[in-house]
Design brief:
The structure holds two protein chains of two kinds. By secondary structure, chain A is mostly beta strands. Chain A is built from no helices and eleven strands. The chains are: A mainly beta, B mainly beta. Chains A and B meet through β5 and β10 of A and β5, β9 and β10 of B.
């Protein structure tokens, strides 16, 4: 079956612009996670949802970052007034259970470049 | 908080055995995961340990000692395709906290 998909795969934007990154989890997966990964580093947790409820947003760097999952399926990570330091790979993952120890399946990521 | 340490790089020879260590300090612990990540690709799940001991899965095994805050991933009969980054992650409160990853290079 289909895995986690993310769009766009690549996004180049100018400093100060807003961007919206989309994640489509595996069908039926309850939990959805957002991570950011710098080159040569492991993924860094940003936020996660069970169904449509945001359970933990402690990893969001500042209030320019927000995420939503209004219908408990597709999620959008929005970065307002982008800065060059926001450039990174943004990865989404989903798991079958409610934030338990179920395996997280990662998507291909969105490579964001802020000029 | 959580702190995870693993070696940055390792090199091994095709056909050999390699052990990748991971140590962690955490205020709460609900399990330890290992993921494999090939260059330019997404991380993929390898193993999960919640109790002390060894979990074997084909050529890959993972060990956990909760009292020591220590885990290792053992790869046997190394193949060239095993060249990748190996990520150790602790699970706490619904989220995974990853280490920096160990870049493994398998040489012929």
């Amino acid at each position: 079956g289909a895995g986690v998909s993310q769009s766009p795969r690549y996004k180049v934007t100018k400093r100060g612009q807003d961007v919206a990154l989309r994640c489509d989890p595996i069908s039926g997966h309850v939990s959805l996670y957002w991570y950011r990964q710098a080159l040569g580093q492991g993924p860094e947790f940003l936020t996660y949802f069970n169904y449509e409820a945001q359970q933990d947003k402690s990893g969001l760097p500042n209030d320019r970052f927000s995420a939503e999952r209004p219908e408990g399926s597709i999620s959008t990570l929005t970065i307002q007034r982008t800065e060059q330091r926001d450039s990174a790979m943004y990865r989404c993952a989903s798991s079958l259970g409610q934030g338990g120890t179920d395996t997280q399946y990662f998507g291909p990521g969105t490579r964001l470049t802020v000029l | 908080g959580q702190n995870i340490d693993q070696p940055t790089e390792m090199t091994a020879t095709e056909g050999a055995i390699v052990q990748i260590n991971c140590t962690y300090q955490t205020s709460g612990f609900n399990g330890l995961f290992w993921y494999q990540q090939h260059a330019g690709e997404a991380p993929t799940f390898l193993s999960y340990n919640v109790l002390d001991g060894l979990e074997e899965k084909g050529r890959f095994s993972s060990f956990l000692s909760r009292s020591k805050g220590y885990s290792y991933l053992l790869l046997k009969e190394l193949q060239m395709k095993d060249s990748a980054s190996y990520l150790c992650a602790t699970y706490q409160g619904g989220k995974l906290i990853f280490g920096q990853g160990t870049e493994l290079s398998v040489k012929p």
